[in-house]
Design goal:
Elements: H1 31-51, H2 64-80
Length: 84
């Protein structure tokens, strides 16, 4: 019985490399100072409220001063999502 011819397989050639698109990274040097500033303002707001027994920073807000302080801190966390 005759042997069949062995077909020569072509060598593997990898697909052509994709050309990477240039990604513009914006300058986000403002993020860290703003984030830290919001954290510190919120912390200071709450500390001043407790130290002055509710008379400062805004007497009319009463216990809502705590919410304002935590609002600044939450704003700091919101800005931190922009940090790369």
């Amino acid at each position: 019985m005759p042997k069949s011819r062995i077909r020569k397989k072509a060598d593997f050639t990898p697909p052509p490399a994709k050309q990477s698109t240039s990604i513009k990274l914006t300058n986000r040097s403002w993020v860290a100072p703003v984030m830290l500033a919001l954290f510190l303002i919120g912390l200071a707001w709450i500390v001043v409220f407790y130290v002055t027994e509710g008379e400062l920073p805004v007497d009319a807000l009463g216990n809502w001063n705590i919410v304002v302080g935590f609002g600044f801190i939450a704003g700091g966390f919101g800005v931190s999502t922009q940090w790369k």
